[in-house]
Automatic annotation (TrEMBL):
One Pfam assignment: MAAL_C
UniProt name for this protein: methylaspartate ammonia-lyase
Residues where Mg(2+) binds: D236, E273, D307
UniProt keyword annotations, A-Z: Lyase, Magnesium, Metal-binding
GO molecular function: metal ion binding; methylaspartate ammonia-lyase activity
KW Hydrolase (keyword) present: no
Names of required cofactors: Mg(2+)
Pathway(s) where this gene product acts: Amino-acid degradation; L-glutamate degradation via mesaconate pathway; acetate and pyruvate from L-glutamate: step 2/4
Residue positions binding (2S,3S)-3-methyl-L-aspartate: Q172, Q329
Catalyzed chemical reaction(s): (2S,3S)-3-methyl-L-aspartate = mesaconate + NH4(+)
InterPro entries: Enolase-like_C_sf, Enolase-like_N, Me_Asp_am_lyase, MeAsp_NH4-lyase_C, MeAsp_NH4-lyase_N
């Protein structure tokens, strides 16, 4: 079935764009916003409304499918593409992108997605957000044209056997790290709470505030969680361990702090995302290898998660090859085409590194549902609940999309099995 039209409509995403550099440099919150001037190119304010481009793809039979272009909350930081402004980029989608894709066979998902990856406008590749959103629509187009699930289209493109149970969902609390986390406990969320530890104030001058919070996690999870609940704690510290302790990261002071985190979380596992941010990929990998080796030598069982400077497919490869992390976040909007996220998850297979299919609170319900299919198709270690920072909505969207997809695939397989039995009986 042919792609007959591609249209772009600017809209809102599920959260906000934040100038991470300004926040790390000490910008003070003023209610929900921040005081002071932005320091990252493209920002008019330190916090400003998140934007998306709604992509409609029309098929020859009149079917219309969607994808949403989205960029991460901390755009322009850690080696990422610049701030994504929908009004600026919408003409690119309705112009050069439409010219490239209209008339193509909708069932040829991988071929179409790769053409999108390679497309250049005025000598530059498309912004990652454009590749991300348009590829979601291409995935939906292929699934509609073939009367199957997006999970099956991706599994066929990636050469995988899809998961038969929902992938563990990782809930994020935002700054409401107590109330939202209690919601997660009640719902039995398997990985939590993210916690947004992005300042010295939140981690503590010597890390003591985070330790107290982890102790609370352990105690409260046992009080509120369902019977048999065994959560995995995942804390994103946005480089704050590096800010508090500094290099080298294999010295006793640092290792002892991670040992204290392990003790505070016991009997549950804990993983720390983005322990430091040293300014470039090479040095970041070296610092994380140093920390990982120091923890291993001391017998400290805390997993380390790569985030900053692990943005593109090539970045994921570099972190995995160097054994710089126990998990790598595959930050879906930063990889461009959604198939690239699937390929990045697959790259972790057979290595010591697990794949966390992440993304950002600043996505949309459309992109979140698309990522649920990537998680199922690749059987990732965990998948982020998104969009937004309210927790409940994102968890519902991602978890329910996986459940309904598994149920649909099971129905299809039962029907196919029945048809096969009938054919055999007739023979």
């Amino acid at each position: 079935m042919e792609i007959t039209g591609i249209h772009a409509t600017p809209g809102y995403s599920g959260f906000f764009f934040d100038d991470q550099r300004a926040i790390k440099q000490g910008a003070q919150q003023d209610g929900f916003t921040y005081e002071g001037e932005p320091v990252t190119d493209g920002f008019d304010e330190i916090r400003q409304a998140g934007e998306t481009i709604i992509v409609d793809v029309e098929l020859a039979d009149g079917t219309v499918v969607r994808g949403d272009c989205a960029a991460v909350q901390y755009s322009g930081a850690g080696g990422r593409d610049p701030l994504f402004q929908a009004e600026e980029y919408a003409p690119v989608v309705s112009g050069p992108v439409a010219d490239e894709l209209e008339g193509r066979d909708a069932t040829a998902f991988l071929e179409n997605a790769e053409a999108l990856e390679e497309l250049q406008v005025k000598g530059d590749r498309l912004h990652t957000a454009i590749r991300y959103g348009v590829s979601q629509a291409l995935l939906s187009a292929a699934a509609e044209a073939q009367h199957t699930t997006r999970t099956d289209v991706l599994a066929d493109a990636l050469g995988t056997e899809p998961a038969t149970e929902p992938v563990p969902v990782f809930g994020q609390s935002g700054d409401d790290r107590y109330n939202n986390t209690e919601k997660m406990f009640v719902k039995g969320v398997p990985v939590l709470p993210h916690a947004l530890i992005n300042s010295v104030e939140k981690i503590g001058e010597n890390g003591e505030t985070l330790l107290e919070y982890v102790e609370w996690l352990t105690e409260r999870s046992q009080e509120l969680g369902p019977d048999g609940y065994e959560p995995r704690f995942h804390i994103d510290v946005y480089g704050m361990v590096g800010e508090v302790f500094g290099a080298p990261y294999d010295r006793d002071e640092v290792v002892d702090y991670f040992a204290a985190l392990e003790d505070a979380a016991a009997p549950y596992p804990i993983q720390i995302e983005g322990p430091m941010d040293v300014g470039n990929r090479g040095d970041q990998i070296a610092a994380m290898v140093e920390l990982r080796e120091g923890l291993a030598d001391a017998g400290v069982d805390v997993d380390i998660v790569a985030d900053e400077w692990c943005n593109t497919f090539e970045d994921v490869q570099a972190f995995v090859d160097a054994e710089a992390a126990d998990l790598v976040q595959v930050k879906t909007p930063d990889l461009g085409g959604i198939h690239r996220s699937g390929q990045a998850v697959r790259y972790c297979e057979g290595t010591e590194t697990r794949a966390y299919l992440g993304g950002t609170c600043n996505e949309t319900e459309t992109s979140a549902r698309a990522c649920a299919h990537v998680a199922l198709a690749t059987n990732a270690a965990q998948v982020l609940a998104k969009p937004g920072m309210g927790f409940d909505e994102g968890y519902m969207i991602v978890e329910n999309e996986m459940r309904r997809t598994i149920a649909r695939r099971n129905r299809q397989q039962r029907r196919t099995g029945s048809e096969t039995d009938e054919v055999t009986a007739d023979d």
